[in-house]
Design brief:
Blueprint: E1 8-12, H1 16-27, E2 31-34, H2 41-50, E3 53-54, H3 58-64, E4 67-70, H4 74-91, E5 97-99, H5 105-116, E6 122-128, E7 139-143, E8 159-164, H6 169-197, H7 201-211, H8 213-222, H9 227-246, H10 252-265, H11 283-291
Parallel strand pairs: 1-2, 1-4, 2-3, 4-5, 5-6, 7-8
Antiparallel strand pairs: 6-7
């Protein structure tokens, strides 16, 4: 297997994570490109700020890139893969494609089959950690025959961890990790919302501060930032549920987590972007907004 040199990387799409990855790759001498066709003005601004070149179309992307990194919401991942496959077929190219999204191993295998059908290498990848520049470098877990291609990007503001072997291992580790982190946040939102609806917020807060101070501090720091992320995380919870279901493990935890994030995404705060979010908004205000549409029952202690 010959691994080509990676000089030009395409980021599809340069959103919150994608534009940050593109920026650090560009800072390390990689030519970073994208197609902004159909993307929002915000995405275009992020791409420009990161120094990512817009080559207009997916056909231009597959012709110019040595490697394509798909970094977007899980619910759009398979659709983008199919669009790239069409562009590869139309241009007769076989540009390597790495799906870096929070999808199930089953979804990754569907993507692999689609790319393989046109002769293009597929890399199963997943990202754990914040965007580059916000603490520790994110870890890109990769697996599959072509995973070593990603090793060229290791140390360029990201860490690449090669799991080798089969497609689905990189997706699988993301499913397990996010099941814990984002699944736990959904549980926190649910129980705090229940307390709010029952009029027990003050009492529960006091108990948590007394017996679980570290946990309560975590809730205070993390939950106010969830509304701007909630819509993106719905699909991720559904992918985790599908992963668990395929393994004979109950999918109900994370189907319920998807429902929690749907409720969070219906609050007015979900209309914010990371650039416009009110940093002064606190936990109490966030939970009050989530609980507002819910009715207190006759049996609740209000």
């Amino acid at each position: 297997m010959n691994i080509m040199t990676v000089n030009t990387v395409a980021i599809l799409s340069p959103g919150d994570m994608g534009h940050s990855v593109g920026k650090v790759l560009g800072d390390h001498g990689i030519d970073v490109i994208t197609s902004l066709a159909g993307r929002s003005d915000r995405t275009a601004r992020l791409a420009e700020a990161a120094g990512i070149r817009d080559v207009q179309s997916l056909e231009s992307v597959v012709l110019q890139a040595d490697l394509i990194l798909s970094i977007l919401v899980p619910s759009d991942a398979l659709g983008l893969t199919q669009q790239v496959v069409s562009a590869l077929r139309d241009t007769g190219t076989v540009t390597p494609f790495a799906d870096c999204n929070a999808v199930s191993p089953q979804t990754a295998k569907l993507m692999d089959a689609a790319l393989t059908s046109v002769g293009a290498p597929f890399i199963d990848a997943s990202i754990i950690g914040p965007p580059p520049g916000k603490g520790q470098a994110p870890r890109f877990y990769v697996s599959g025959k072509w995973a070593p291609m990603m090793s060229e990007l290791d140390g360029m503001g990201i860490e690449v961890r090669d799991l080798r072997t089969c497609i689905g291992r990189a997706s699988g580790i993301k499913m397990c990790y996010a099941a814990m982190t984002k699944g736990t946040s959904a549980l926190h939102v649910a129980l705090l919302t229940a307390a709010e609806v029952m009029g027990l917020t003050d009492q529960l807060r006091a108990e948590l501060k007394y017996s679980q101070p570290g946990l309560y501090d975590q809730m205070e720091s993390q939950i106010p930032g969830l509304p701007v992320k909630a819509m993106r995380w719905i699909g991720e919870m559904e992918e985790i549920a599908d992963t668990f279901d395929s393994l004979g493990i109950t999918p109900l935890f994370h189907r319920a987590s998807a429902d929690v994030y749907r409720a969070v995404a219906e609050t007015p705060f979900a209309e914010d972007t990371p650039e416009t979010v009110d940093e002064s908004r606190n936990l109490a205000q966030t939970i009050a907004a989530i609980a507002a549409p819910l009715q207190c029952t006759e049996d609740s202690p209000r």
